[in-house]
Amino acid sequence: MKTLPRELPASLSAVSGRADVRPGSPLPLGTQETRGGVNFALFGRDATRVRLELFDHPEDAAPAQQIDLDPARNRTGDIWHVWVEGIGTGQLYAYRVDGPYRPSDGHRFNFNRLLLDPCATAITRAPPWDFAAARGFDPSAPEQDLAPSTRDNSRSVPKCVFVNEPFDWGEDRPPRHPWSETVIYETHVRGFTIHPTSGVARPGTYRGLVEKIPYLKDLGVTAVELMPVQEFNEDSLTRRNPQTGQLLKNYWGYDPVVFCAPRGSYSSAEGPGRQHREFKELVRAFHGAGIEVLLDVVFTHTAEGNELGPTLTFRGIDNAIFYTLAGDNRYYQDFTGTGNAVDANHPVVRDHILAALRYWIVEMRVDGFRFDLASVLGRDGTGKLLADAPILERIAEDPILRDVKMIAEAWDVAGAYEVGSFSGRRWAEWNDRFRDDVRRFWRGDDGMLGSFASRICGSADVYTVSGKGPECSINYVTCHDGFTLNDLVSYRDKHNEANGDNNRDGPDANFGENNGTEGATTDRRIETVRKGQIKNFVLTLLISRGVPMLLGGDEFRRTQGGNNNAYCQDNETSWYDWSNLERHGDICRFTRGMIAFRRAHPVLSAEHFYTGTEILWFGPDGGPPDWFDPKQNQVACLIQEDERNALCSMFNAAPDEIDFRLPPVPAGRQWYRTVDTARESPQDLFAAGEEPLWEAPRAYHLGPRSSAILLVR
């Protein structure tokens, strides 16, 4: 972690002990520069005392100035506020909040805890964050949380950074791709370029990601979905890798500390708040390339964990309002597997979440969001799932958010599963039914024919009941959570030993197949099968109605060594080894070609389900498929593009080759071969206009475990 420079903006020179202090305004919450100073506003309904502390340096334990807010002058309703003269961008600050410490009533105020502003838009990158100091007691002695800690943690926690720098957006315009033209690429900001083989000047940063825009544009994706960039603590874990002895890192970051601050360690620039500008530069650059920026956001839980966790912000400001508490109020409801759940449908918390979403759209100009464990957002203060959750309706109808993409992970760890029925049509959803059914079909499982066909057609069986269309289905075979595509065809079982949990973490049902041996191999026969299966998955994903999402690195066979839960592996397990791009350039070429194929044939991505006249399914003999034969795993479909043009896709998940009888073509038209996953590159895929004539118009010979596409032209 880099050390911040001690030089501060000139605007801070007048602060210590000499700044004019006035009552200020209750709105807006957070900070706002106005009339030569900054207004600070903090929600605190049950607080009895609030102190604002201003710091000169991130490592300082003692503030340069502390301002106690008078309840009579500095409080309006539940909002504490103050205006301070003579400070500006770069000012470091934090709060102390006092009130009752009664866990049985849900209150955990502690004036010894230095707290972050829930509305902070940047926090400092140093000193290293000590969660043990933020707890103030030993979690192995659980009764200690019944009394407040007397330990002051101000030296060991980051401070908030006030940021209000002008930024030149130039001619920036959000691309606003319709769902029918969207291809999503999910990636981790740091992992994408931190490996020495990435070849970028600023590895592991926002700017490093910007350096790879030409690659992404050439690949053909229209949106990047960034794993969490909301500020989190990478040093929150206490377990060690049993294989190396090294402390594990919080690599994924699905436990934010505040909702509006971009991750500081992903910035290549020194200085307080510089990550703010660098993130904007990233968005501007991606927009200039016609690529949207989607954020994977977490509003369902925070890094404060359960009753034994650290006090960082929400818990110390108003624990009873921000979190969903258990019946005795000392404990937390946990629908997320992290120890707590945000009470997203409390009106105060609802407004806070909406303000954060608006901030990312208006100030940072992102193009949409993927909501982690979104079903938690549909629960009330007791944990009950609501039919029409207020926060989901507010998000869907908010005038600022109307044109941005909204994607739900429509389940949680407490049993909620709402794929196909999550809120209204405004919400798209990660379709794990697509993932599992496509995996199982290509693995050769019995009884998957009908489900496989439904996934290709947009999952009407999943979405029509709720009135949604195929554009609401975010189709994926792999994502950050689980096997990579290479590992899906190289491992039958997960291998998470390095996570330090005896291989108990991560899902057991992966529907993977090692195709002959577990893990990496030099056996050419096994490698040929694996390569063909990877191409089958890519082809299936990119011809299916719905919105395709690729896991970053799958296009050049990124591996995690069979680890299907690499959340704590900030190392070569998770990093993108770009030398694979040369070794597996044929897979990247195939992926690029299939994205281009999808773009060239809009019928594949239309935002409605197929009608009976648009698609015809048939078996190898040319007749209707036997949908009810559990052993049947060979099928084809003819898709009409218009009166004279059509696509014929054939799928063979069996270990034996097969001949498909082809439908007749109109007079004067012929079959052309465009894709065949059984063939070696470059014969496996042809660009538009370069497809060779298929000279056996009555049948097509399809190899084992392969797929092919013919065109009528």
From TrEMBL:
<dbReference type="InterPro" id="IPR014756">
    <property type="entry name" value="Ig_E-set"/>
</dbReference>
<dbReference type="InterPro" id="IPR013783">
    <property type="entry name" value="Ig-like_fold"/>
</dbReference>
<feature type="domain" description="Glycosyl hydrolase family 13 catalytic">
    <location>
        <begin position="186"/>
        <end position="598"/>
    </location>
</feature>
<dbReference type="InterPro" id="IPR017853">
    <property type="entry name" value="GH"/>
</dbReference>
<keyword id="KW-0809">Transit peptide</keyword>
<dbReference type="InterPro" id="IPR044505">
    <property type="entry name" value="GlgX_Isoamylase_N_E_set"/>
</dbReference>
<dbReference type="Pfam" id="PF21156">
    <property type="entry name" value="ISOA1-3_C"/>
</dbReference>
<dbReference type="InterPro" id="IPR013780">
    <property type="entry name" value="Glyco_hydro_b"/>
</dbReference>
<dbReference type="Pfam" id="PF02922">
    <property type="entry name" value="CBM_48"/>
</dbReference>
<dbReference type="GO" id="GO:0019156">
    <property type="term" value="F:isoamylase activity"/>
</dbReference>
<dbReference type="GO" id="GO:0004135">
    <property type="term" value="F:amylo-alpha-1,6-glucosidase activity"/>
</dbReference>
<keyword id="KW-0378">Hydrolase</keyword>
<dbReference type="Pfam" id="PF00128">
    <property type="entry name" value="Alpha-amylase"/>
</dbReference>
<dbReference type="InterPro" id="IPR006047">
    <property type="entry name" value="GH13_cat_dom"/>
</dbReference>
<dbReference type="InterPro" id="IPR011837">
    <property type="entry name" value="Glycogen_debranch_GlgX"/>
</dbReference>
<feature type="region of interest" description="Disordered">
    <location>
        <begin position="496"/>
        <end position="524"/>
    </location>
</feature>
<dbReference type="GO" id="GO:0005980">
    <property type="term" value="P:glycogen catabolic process"/>
</dbReference>
<dbReference type="InterPro" id="IPR004193">
    <property type="entry name" value="Glyco_hydro_13_N"/>
</dbReference>
<protein>
    <submittedName>
        <fullName>Retaining isoamylase</fullName>
        <ecNumber>3.2.1.68</ecNumber>
    </submittedName>
</protein>
<keyword id="KW-0326">Glycosidase</keyword>
<dbReference type="InterPro" id="IPR048650">
    <property type="entry name" value="ISOA1-3-like_C"/>
</dbReference>
<feature type="region of interest" description="Disordered">
    <location>
        <begin position="1"/>
        <end position="32"/>
    </location>
</feature>
<feature type="compositionally biased region" description="Basic and acidic residues">
    <location>
        <begin position="496"/>
        <end position="507"/>
    </location>
</feature>
<comment type="similarity">
    <text>Belongs to the glycosyl hydrolase 13 family.</text>
</comment>
